[in-house]
Amino acid sequence: MMNKVVYPGSFDPITYGHIDIIKRASKIFDYIVIGIAKDNNKTNFLFSETERKSLIKNSLSSIENIEVKIFDGLLTDFVKQENSNIIIRGLRVLSDFEYEFRMALMNRKLDDEITTMFMMPNEKYTHISSSLIKEVASLGGSVDDYVPSEILVELNKKLNENSK
Ligand code: PNS
């Protein structure tokens, strides 16, 4: 049986923290579907879903056992649709725990066959998030250590467009 997992998120934009989790997961599981959620608790996205999808694809071109998809509706429905029963989420700091714990249990209530598994990224990335990266970059700070160079280019381009 193929071990296929879903790694969902907003990825606005993908960071080295996400990439670290994906690389680790790609060595453990047979296939990873990276799911960009349309329905999210966030509203102000910098990149559109299609832009996020191509940014992810460009930064992960060296990994073969992955696929990037955009989904709407419930994550549990998407996981089933993908013939998977495992959700991968990254845990960075303790403050992530409560939100992740609530989501994992709600998802299990929605579908008892689906299990959420948590992975920790390299400690170099435990303090970063896409939101923090966008904030620092928009204020002129360096985020070179946290996103691939092709993402950095697109990030600065987008921030410049938005500031006009
Ligand atoms: O990267 P994020 O923003 O922390 O990811 C949150 C995400 C996309 C995993 C969550 O918002 C989600 O699962 N959205 C899909 C809709 C859904 O199923 N919501 C109920 C979750 S219990």
Outline:
The chain has 164 residues and is an alpha/beta fold. The chain contains 6 helices and 5 strands, in the order E-H-E-H-E-H-E-H-E-H-H. Helix content is 44%, strand content 18%.
List keywords for this structure.
164 residues, alpha/beta, 3-stranded parallel sheet, 6 helices, 5 strands, 44% helix, binds 4'-phosphopantetheine
**What overall geometry do the principal axes of the alpha carbons give?**
globular
Tally of separate helices: 6
Query: Biggest sheet, open or closed, and with what strands and sense?
Result: 3 strands, parallel
Give every kind of bound small molecule, once each: 4'-phosphopantetheine
Structural class: alpha/beta
Describe the structure.
With about 160 residues, this protein is α/β, with parallel strands linked by helices. The mean pLDDT is about 95. Helices cover about 45% and strands about 20% of the residues. A three-stranded parallel sheet has the order 1-2-3, sandwiched between helices. Strands 4-5 form a two-stranded parallel ribbon. It has six helices and five strands. It has helices at about 15-30, 50-60, 75-80, 95-110, 130-140, 150-164; strands at about 5-10, 30-35, 65-70, 85-90, 115-120. The structure holds 4'-phosphopantetheine. 4'-phosphopantetheine binds near residues 103, 106 and 107.
